[in-house]
């Protein structure tokens, strides 16, 4: 089975197109090698998927015929990501949650930028 189809079937990606793009943009490794979406996957292979700042790794246990339900995914893959990497991911998610609660969303909107410019102008006068 193709790696992009496998990633989609075991619900590591929402759509098959998204899975294919991840493979071609070097966000998926098969046995520690970057691969293209057409590469085949076999039982016993190790798949690593880039998620945020870490690589989540999985071992292929079985190959499905088609996309499976969320409850059946544990019968097809086994997560082998180290605890250290999972802790890093948890810390990053916690920091993002704190930023969201504080109202820090990234780039300011046009209106917010104008308000900041007005505030700076008033402070200079």
Structure description:
The chain is α+β, with helices and mostly antiparallel strands and 125 residues long. It has 2 domains: 1-81, RNA-binding S4 domain (Structural Genomics Hypothetical 15.5 Kd Protein In mrcA-pckA Intergenic Region, Chain A); 82-125, no CATH class. It is built from 4 helices and 5 strands, in the order ααβββββαα. The chain has a 5-stranded antiparallel beta sheet. A hairpin with a 2-residue loop joins strand 1 (28-30) and strand 2 (33-34). Helix 1 packs across helix 2 (16-24). It is elongated.
Compose a concise summary of this entry:
The protein is of the alpha+beta class and 125 residues long.
Tally of alpha and pi helices: 4
Percent of residues in beta strands: 15-25%
CATH topology of the largest domain: Structural Genomics Hypothetical 15.5 Kd Protein In mrcA-pckA Intergenic Region, Chain A
The helix content is 40-55%
Class computed from helices, strands and strand pairing: alpha+beta
Q: Element order, helices and strands?
A: HHEEEEEHH
Q: What CATH architecture of the largest domain would you give?
A: Roll
Full CATH superfamily name of the largest domain: RNA-binding S4 domain
Strand order in the sheet with the most strands: 2-1-3-4-5
Approximate shape: elongated
The rounded Rg comes to 21 Å
Low-confidence stretches: none
The total strand number stands at 5
**CATH class annotation of the largest domain:** Alpha Beta
Mean pLDDT: 90
- The biggest beta sheet, please? 5 strands, antiparallel
Kindly give the count of domains.
2
How far is the first residue's CA from the last residue's CA?
A: 68 Å
């Amino acid at each position: 089975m193709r790696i992009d189809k496998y990633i989609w079937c075991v619900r590591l990606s929402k759509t098959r197109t998204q899975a294919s793009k991840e493979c071609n943009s070097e966000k998926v490794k098969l046995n520690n090698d970057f691969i293209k979406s057409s590469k085949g996957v076999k039982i016993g292979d190790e798949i690593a998927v880039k998620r945020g700042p870490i690589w989540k790794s999985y071992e292929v246990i079985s190959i499905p015929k088609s996309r499976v339900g969320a409850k059946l995914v544990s019968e097809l893959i086994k997560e082998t990501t180290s605890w250290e990497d999972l802790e890093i991911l948890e810390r990053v998610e916690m920091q993002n949650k704190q930023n969201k609660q504080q109202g820090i969303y990234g780039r300011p909107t046009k209106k917010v930028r104008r308000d900041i410019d007005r505030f700076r102008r008033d402070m200079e006068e």
